[in-house]
Known about the structure:
The chain is α+β, with helices and mostly antiparallel strands.
Amino acid sequence: MKKIVWGFVVVAAVLLSGCQRNRPQVADDPAHTVSVFGTTISPVYTSKKQFYDNLLDLYPHLKPALDHDAQPETITIPGLKQTRSLTVNGKLGTSKQMDPQGLAVTQKDVIISAYSRDKAYHSVLYLLNKKTGAYVKQIVMPNLDHVGGIAYDPITKRLWITTMTKSGTASLSAYDQKTLKYADFSRTKKATPFDHVVALPKISRSSFLTYHNNALFVGYFAGSGQGVFRSYPLNQKGIPQTNKNADVELRGDDLKVGSYNTNKRLQGVTFYQGKLLFSQSFGKQPSNLLVFDNDGQKKWLDFDSDDTLKTVKMPPYLEQIVADGSDLYVLFESASTHYRKVDLDFHADRVMKLDLKTLLK
């Protein structure tokens, strides 16, 4: 009888151990590399405490916006040391040059897009638990695109991604809710095809993206001169309407296709309570968060510097920003392999969360 009981305990322990390994994981020690199916989920530079100490030493004006109760305060960016993906030929491989670009927030997840800077591996999505910051899984996309922007439509629960067509023009691609739920590269070891692909006329490249009030807003990064910012209202099926003259029933009554000129060197955009926020970054100098008093739909957008309500100095290599309630999620690419070679005072290997009510005072 004792042997039977002991055998049951051993089997139960093994099963429990397996369950623990399959649960979302959080890693906080840069000295101890943790990987899930070949993708690192541990930070490359700092623990959470070190991250805050370094950040506030260099950017003390951010302290009031960081000092709030929303958890988790930071989220480690996965895959910075290495990411398991597919080669150009569709074989399993490991990229050591994944560069984080896009950011989206859903009801349950924080999603980060990344591309392999050497263009030798497929681009990926990392999904992390919104409440804990734990790594959940990875989706490998069917392309090698820059995937500079991603946006989540909370109505259809669909994730949109900036992509390129085979002819080299701008497009938007999307995963439906069911695909986001069940796709898992560690299980299939295959790229997940997009559920929707929409070509974008009259814009040479789609660099960043956001969702707001039944429309997708796409931006084009310009290193010098003005960039382009276009709005695409969504139809009843949640697909962006690219032809303003088409007779299509839209999801909102006051929406229209629009095109505006913007400041140069913009990397991301988000809307918050009638305000429009841009991330502006280029090179190793500090980045900026630019705030405009404009909702982007009911009046013409004017992005002259004279109309900027507020400019907040941020660490270098700021990428996409996302407002979720009163939280602003902020992504950087400065901890990727390419930028780890750059002499910076601060490399951000974490998504940072700021309190917008405090930040915009």
